[in-house]
Amino acid sequence: MQTEWAKQSSAEIEVVFLGTSSGVPTLKRNLPAVALVRQGEVFLFDCGEGTQHQLRRSGVRMGRLRHIFLTHFHGDHITGLPGLLMSLQMSERTTPLSLYGPPGLGEMIRFFQRMMHTHFTYELQILEFEEEGKVLETEAYWVEARRLEHRVLTFGFALVERPRPGRFDVEKAQRLGIPPGPLFGQLQRGEAVRLPDGRWVLPEEVIGPSRPGRRIAYCTDTRPCPSGVELARGADLLIHEATFTHDLYEEAVFRGHSTAREAAQVALEAGASSLILTHFSPRYQKVEPLLEEARALFPCTWAAHDLARFQVALPKGDGHEREILVQKVPSGGQRG
Amino acid sequence: MQTEWAKQSSAEIEVVFLGTSSGVPTLKRNLPAVALVRQGEVFLFDCGEGTQHQLRRSGVRMGRLRHIFLTHFHGDHITGLPGLLMSLQMSERTTPLSLYGPPGLGEMIRFFQRMMHTHFTYELQILEFEEEGKVLETEAYWVEARRLEHRVLTFGFALVERPRPGRFDVEKAQRLGIPPGPLFGQLQRGEAVRLPDGRWVLPEEVIGPSRPGRRIAYCTDTRPCPSGVELARGADLLIHEATFTHDLYEEAVFRGHSTAREAAQVALEAGASSLILTHFSPRYQKVEPLLEEARALFPCTWAAHDLARFQVALPKGDGHEREILVQKVPSGGQRG
User: Fold this and answer.
1) Is the pLDDT assigned to residue B8 strictly greater than 60?
2) ipTM above 0.95 for this complex
3) For the segment B57-86, what is each residue's pLDDT rounded down to a tens digit?
4) B145 and B76 both lie in a single domain
5) Which residues contact A279 (CB under 8 A, 6 or more apart)?
6) Do B56 and A27 touch (CB under 8 A)?
7) Which pTM does this prediction carry?
8) Which domain does B184 fall in, by range?
9) Quick one: A192 and A127 in the same domain?
10) How many domains does the structure of chain B reveal?
């Protein structure tokens, strides 16, 4: 499946905001949830009430959802989970689905199942964790979790791609007289090869330096904190909560949230390349004040809106220079 | 409060459909929920995921919600409950709220509260019942519950108004020489009065026959069944599920649902005046086939859509003749 998806999909990671309010939904903003689409595989971060509705509207394919990460168990971040799991069941899903979150997640799922008379014919893998670390790891990427500073046990996450092998320089290979065919593949896999004329060619002669992977960090709900900075360290994209404008700093402290200025400070301190603000208090009908506040410190900032869609391109360079990889793209169309 | 609301509100009962799909939401239809607004008091029947979003869109005032009735614990009927309760908490509600449903309701609420670290500062009254009967009773109306036939324990409900006193005939009172003032009030309260000239006047001389109350029945999810017919007996409005067209009769039987034709048969057998179909399978992008099927048997039928709004007028007559009290009215505006 993975290979088939990869073929259909682009190299960009898509970031689709499904809900950008906090606490309660508004007419324009749903409760928190963000989908990442990477090579046809969909990752969901948080799952507020109405997330399945928003997934339908977004064009992100629910069938390709593989991993759901829950930051914490405040209602606005999880009330969409039972409905989403049930709708996946009713769509006759067979692909396994993995859930990641703080302790209690399994108990919650079992309670829903018992209460709502639901069984799942697809495999539901539940990973609860209390400690920081990698909660998911593959050959291509990992997802790490770190404890944030909120009123209850809360984790932020970062999706981190491993470096990709360097580019194979076909022209140089031809100049070196390497015949196209199996020898190309051996060099690409990092093996030295012997040419028909007896010469040896080492992989580094035709393969460029390895290329960096991308890092996308998701920090909500939280006060600005060292763990948030660590998650965002050198990130190509930091998604950070900005519940309040800085004039409500004391309310932010009291409620365990961040102001837009504080979100920008985290991005700055972490050396992130781009910042997207989300999780806005419903008191803000327009979020321009939050955006301006953050941009004053960290210019490469966007304010998320529901169904907003961003792409994080593949890095072009060798990783020595920071590039801005994020761009906002039109919403709509099917993807995932 | 009740009196204040009554002053602000009209004599019609408003019926507002918040969700008209079944199982899973579609782009046009949310999960099951219907609001009744009677003299400024809001009754909610079922609470699928996204009900609080739909309440916001409908103009029904969430602050006036007093009673929530849950038919059964399949996910599509209850997944909106925790979010709604939490949003009411965040709106700093102080008015008590009553929840009615099958056994397990209290356990579910306590689980949500513990899991989601929520407390309610408003009083939450929880009434669980396994037996049929009146689950709510006031001087003006009662709500009765009867067991329907579904795959799990399921109740249908009827809101039944008590008869209202007859009209006070002011002209006749004046012809009888009764001076306007306290004597009018005594007669209206059913007391005999003595006039200044010594004559006695009995209440029935100036007050017409008592006027019937209205009955609105809500039957979902269910096979057509005698309890459904009893709930709908003589109802001014029957809201009945019609998950399938009758060509899918066997699927309806298997899943414990009704076809549109069966819903019409229930209305007919019960002598109901009007029927509104809802709870449509998401397979129907257009519900005209269901509507036509029902109308062939029971002409006074509507098909609900999300945010559709109906009014049930006060009966004009003496109850001996059936009147059609229901009319569809434009959506929008604030009410409740």
Assistant:
1) no
2) no
3) 999 999 999 999 999 999 999 999 999 999
4) yes
5) A20, A21, A22, A32, A220, A221, A241, A242, A243, A257
6) yes
7) 0.90
8) 170-205
9) no
10) 2
